[in-house]
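Complex record, two chains
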Amino acid sequence: MTSTQGALDVATRMGAVLMLVAIVLVFGVLTPGFLAPDSLANTVKQSSFIGIAAVGMVFVLLTAGIDLSVGSVMFLGSLVAGLVMRDAGAGVGLALLACLATGAILGAINAVLIVGLRVIPFIVTLSTLFLYRGFGTWLTESRQLDFPDEVRSFGLASVGGIPVPILIFAAVALLAHVILRHTAFGRHVYAFGNDPLAAAKAGLPVRRIQATVYVVSGTLAALAGFVLISQIGRLDAGFGEGREFDVIAAAVLGGASLFGGIGGAGSAVLGALTIQAVKAGLVFSGVNLYLQPLLQGAVILLAVFLDGLREARLRSLRRRVIRPRTA
Amino acid sequence: MRSTFLSALGATAFATLLGTGAQAATICFAFQDLETEFWVAGHKAITTTLTEAGHTVIERNANEDANRQLEQVNDCIAQGVDGIIIIPQDGESAVTIVQTAQDNDVPIAVFNRPPSDLSKGIVVVADNATIAEQAVDFVAQEAMARITDRPIQPLIIVGDLGDPNAVGRKDGFYAALQKYGDKFATPIEVASEWDAATALANLEAAVTANPNIDLIFTSSDFLFPTIRSVLEPRGKWVPRDQEGHVLMAGLDGDATACQLIKDGFVDATGVQDLYFEAESAMNAILAAIEAGETQPNQVIEDPGFALTSANLGEREMDMWGCVLLSEGFLNN
């Protein structure tokens, strides 16, 4: 293997990381303040809620599924937390538990419909996207819900100088990484995503695996909503709306495949950071507001294009070579 | 609610027309969503008043989907409604919906969010640019009185650029500052897309990049809690009588803004006269139905005003948000 090929191989394997580094460096050169520690920490903090939900989405994508209801779960989970605080006088801890339980239940409803009734995930989660949001809108009658100051104190707090949203994001990503790479369940998820029939023939509990990933996605979407609401302090009818696209984009941009079996917790982290770095960089550079969506779209398209090249390169590397190439 | 509404209207003719003068009509009220206090209050004012006056209201919520709203309006037309009031998703879809209604000889009124073509239908619209200019002018003058030794750094949180209201407010912001030339530095623009999470992320980045912001104008009052989340950890969320206060103005006139002006955190807000707009839309559509006019075309402009820390005492109860606040809206 030549040194050029070697460099190309490294580039293809580390494509998502290199893309993120390139984006940070480009904006850093354009506006040096972008590389300041405060600015970078802010970028990570603002990517945290999308990143947390994207970690859950990676579990689903690994099984070649999709969860379009995450934005609505963010809304309903946070709403339940707010109602528990307002009507039952619960503290932040209990509210967070109620939020997570709501997310798990909503994820379980998706799971029952997908696994139990064998309806395709796209249709089920598209339906529950409207169902969950409609239920939340009905509960609130479109009125805003203000959270107590203790929730905002939680969202704006730091531990050892690191903002709480970043700590939660890091903990979720680390836990997901351990589960996916170092547990039997994680290996089962990859096996199912690569070939569901083979996984079933091998005796894996495929229905339970498929159901569990939707519960994980729902729970993490609810947690993401709580992390966001703890920074804003007010839930309105549009909370979380359309976020499913950011979440899916983050997971895919970081390297997770929509066709299953490829990706990991790191994909969600990289994707969420990349998207937020682009957004923050455009703000730092003072780019015209009309041009910002165009540039965001262009950067994401470029990233996906490079990812396509990476996939093609990896496929060629995996191909069996019967007769080794000669120089 | 109705008594407050009617007292706020102060229009005898309105009550006469709605209550006794007009025949009972079936009105389709198609709105895009109710995501802010303004839309919730506007929705309640229209539905409650029409229903209590003996009219039938068919409500349709498009959940921010312009195509769905067109289908809903078509459905209303098929049901044979006498008139339509819409809050459209955007200016372009409003043109199509107004045209559809007029092609079917059903009078239609557009509430608050104007079509890009104002020549068709009854259009009730706030003069967003002028109202924004009034509010920004107040804080600009306050800023010039406080800061004399350097250019003042303003920041604007822009709404969804597909919404004519957002564009009008942005234009009003610039019109106010242009009067004072180089006393103001180039404004920092922050996109919100009418979404609190987007505004939070972008504003946090903007304030990190430019820590010395003197003046903030938000294109909608519903973003004040988001601004607070960004400024408070940086020690910049302080009332106007304390050192480090960032001058702040908004637009809408909601209950939160009213409370924040009273508390001293916000200095001014441009007020859309919600009750005037609701009254005008209902009056015009009922008058058209009564007259048998199927394609009425009329523009009704809400001049609005700015509620500021200086005129709070006199004009407080002219602002719909302060009326709601006095009814305990924020406690419910």
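Note: Chain A has one domain: 36-286.
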